[in-house]
Design brief:
The structure holds two protein chains of two kinds. By secondary structure, chain A is an alpha/beta fold. Chain A is built from eleven helices and twelve strands. The model of chain A is unreliable at 1-8 (pLDDT under 50). Chain B is an alpha/beta fold. In chain B, helix 4 crosses helix 5 and helix 5 (157-169) runs parallel beside helix 6 (187-204). The two termini of chain B are 27 Å apart. Classes of the chains: A alpha/beta, B alpha/beta.
């Protein structure tokens, strides 16, 4: 009967439009104000059960974007729609619902775990905060099994410092999913871990996504892991999304000069690498207090079109289905 | 020995702690030819940094065992007194750039003053000469010598790391030991530092020991690769061989856990965790996690040569 089922175009779980987050900075002593434009007009969608990566260098605004989506920061402008509801301006009381539906996995697992609480207590905390009264022990047991911190009895009474780095990160993940959210944001969840443990954690996230239909936003600076872990990638530079497409497409047919540079410098293990000098765009990412006019990558861009790129900001252009580039070269 | 810059033989360093003796570096041997780079790779806690510290003799206070031979151009450094070592070797013949060294620059002391300090105070070089050397070193790493008068807080992370590399080059050492030189830097900055190190290696013919946990990155510099596991070197190989066909089961698993950007491959992790260095297992230290183990592995394997260069500490090759 499958053929008879009409495929409806469903709304994405998360839909972000024109999101901006500016931070006010005092300038000089007379109290002049300036704005640090950490996230400056970002559109993004995540479907149910989809894993999406946000990739960029430090200071590009990827963490701020993640935190603003979770409403840990309140947005300056734009809208965030989650599961059919507008969450952009939710009041603190209504936010509690959103908190239950979303989770955060931080970068440094040890720093994210209270050192004086046992594993059981750490996992009960969100249940207590959200007023879950019955079956707490059972839920703690179930979530520990999900992240494979087993046998549960051995782990429940331990303190974070008694766990290895990988186990700590499993615990952070367990805490983020204990309320059974629909989406989690993992902000550099593996950058502090060893290669082998990295794979272990990413495979766990993948498993959770597949088994429970969890949506995952994976924030990272490491493009090579996105290949194994996400279906789509957003590349950020200086507060903008400069390119987004399916992961395979980005890795094989990247178009934005910044994405090209980023991909060309990442080595795969190869003995010939040592004879190669890589070409790197000169300069540094711009100061977000006063970003350059036009395209933000223009001062470093090897394909600069003078009089265009440094004058007018390029729009996000759809070059092929699902592949968007913010660059005048493709206009 | 023709062309041999450094030869480490049976180097051992244990620390004493409340819970027992930590066998951080256990009977490590390593050759390094002139102008060559060896990458020392392994997971955190495998003893990579301890090996570096044992070579440059920056020992922790609680060190309990420190023995072996470290030959630099044929001279046994282990026989030198502390005073001689400090005067003739450390920062003169061998320089060491510890992890996150860029953060140890004092932000409010001029770059130049920090660069000449060890030269003037420790080695008694005249100030003018020291400044000349510092300026020259800065130019080598692609920074204008005007930066001698700048403060570190004015520099970006990449620039600071360049200054640190310049500092370690001022006296034209024979060997540079770099411990995770790019670990806190961004992707593009990391690539530019690797470009710089490649140029230094090519033009100045400095031998390097490049310590990293990042297998892909290690291939950017390595002529030889040493894989460390639980305080021991389990495989030593030429880069040409290692990245294509690692021999030791640990190296193979490690390679399998490295995500590649350009090729598809089945990623796999190594189950379990490395043994405690307080009480490492009697036989092969990888025994617990190895899928290819057999009876013999309960006895510690010797280092078995595979060809002229490569050797593996594994019974599969014995």
């Amino acid at each position: 009967m499958l053929a008879l089922r009409v495929k409806t175009v469903s709304e994405p779980l998360l839909s972000v439009k024109g999101l901006r987050k500016f931070f006010e900075v005092k300038k000089g002593f007379l109290g002049g104000k300036a704005y640090l434009k950490a996230v400056d007009g970002v559109d993004l969608t995540v479907a149910k059960g989809e894993a999406v990566s946000i990739v960029g260098e430090s200071g590009c605004g990827k963490t701020t974007l993640g935190k603003t989506i979770l409403r840990l920061y309140s947005p300056t402008e734009g809208s965030i729609k989650f599961d059919g509801r507008d969450v952009t301006r939710l009041k603190p009381k209504e936010l509690k619902w959103y908190r239950r539906e979303t989770g955060l996995v931080q970068q440094d697992p040890f720093g994210a775990l209270p050192p004086f609480m046992t594993v059981r207590r750490i996992l009960e905390e969100p249940l207590i905060v959200h007023g879950v009264k019955s079956g707490r022990t059972e839920r703690v047991r179930r979530v520990l099994e999900k992240v494979r911190l087993t046998p549960v009895e051995d782990f429940a009474g331990k303190y974070p410092h008694m766990l290895s780095g990988g186990q700590q990160q499993r615990l952070v993940i367990a805490r983020s999913i204990i309320l059974e959210p629909k989406m989690i944001i993992a902000d550099e969840p593996v950058s502090m871990l060893d290669a082998s443990v990295r794979v272990e954690i990413l495979q766990l996230l993948e498993e959770l996504r597949k088994q429970y239909g969890l949506s995952v936003i994976y924030i990272t600076h490491d493009l090579s892991t996105t290949r194994y872990f996400s279906s789509r990638v957003y590349i950020m530079y200086a507060g903008h999304v400069v390119e987004h497409a399916e992961t395979k497409e980005i890795l094989s047919k990247q178009m934005h000069p910044y994405t090209k540079a980023l991909i060309s410098v990442i080595p795969d293990p190869d003995p010939l690498n040592r004879f190669v000098t890589r070409s790197i765009p000169s300069g540094e990412p711009p100061n977000l207090l006063n970003p350059p006019k036009g395209c933000r990558f223009n001062p470093r861009c090897p394909s600069l079109i003078n009089g265009v790129c440094n004058v007018k900001e390029p729009p996000l252009i759809e070059v092929s289905k699902g592949h968007h580039v913010k660059c005048w070269l493709y206009d | 020995m023709e062309g041999k810059q450094l030869s480490v033989e049976g180097l051992t360093m244990y620390y004493k702690t409340m819970r027992g003796e930590v066998k951080a570096v256990d009977n490590v041997s390593l050759p390094l030819l002139k102008g060559e780079t060896v990458a020392v790779i392994g997971e955190s806690g495998c003893g990579k940094s301890s090996l570096a510290k044992a070579i440059i003799r920056l020992l922790p206070r609680n060190v309990s065992v420190y023995r072996g031979t470290v030959l630099l151009n044929g001279l046994n450094l282990m026989e030198l007194s502390e005073e001689e070592f400090a005067r003739k070797v450390r920062w003169v013949k061998i320089t060491y750039v510890p992890q996150a060294a860029l953060n140890s620059l004092n932000p409010v002391i001029k770059v130049g003053d920090q660069m000449i300090e060890p030269l003037v105070l420790r080695l008694g070089i005249a100030k003018r000469e020291a400044i000349e050397k510092a300026a020259e070193a800065l130019t080598t790493v692609g920074i204008s010598k005007d930066f001698l008068n700048r403060y570190p807080f004015e520099l970006s992370g990449g620039m600071k790391q360049r200054v640190i590399i310049a500092m370690s080059l001022t006296l034209r050492p024979n060997l540079m030991i770099l411990d995770e030189p790019t670990s806190s830097l961004d992707v593009l900055t990391q690539a530019s530092i690797m470009n710089l190190l490649k140029a230094v290696k090519r033009d100045l013919k400095v031998s390097m020991m490049f310590i990293t946990h990042d297998v892909s990155l290690s291939s950017e510099l390595a002529d030889k690769v040493a894989v460390m596991y639980a305080g021991q070197i389990v495989e030593f190989s030429s880069a040409d061989r290692f990245y294509l066909e690692p021999k030791h089961p640990y190296s193979q698993k490690l390679m399998q856990s490295v995500p590649t950007l350009r090729r598809d491959k089945e990623l796999a992790y190594i189950p379990g965790s490395p043994p405690s260095l307080l009480n490492p297992p009697k036989g092969c230290r990888f025994y617990e996690r190895c899928s290819l183990k057999f009876e013999k592995c309960e006895v510690e394997p010797p280092t078995i040569p595979v060809d002229k260069v490569s050797s593996v500490k594994c019974w599969l090759y014995g």
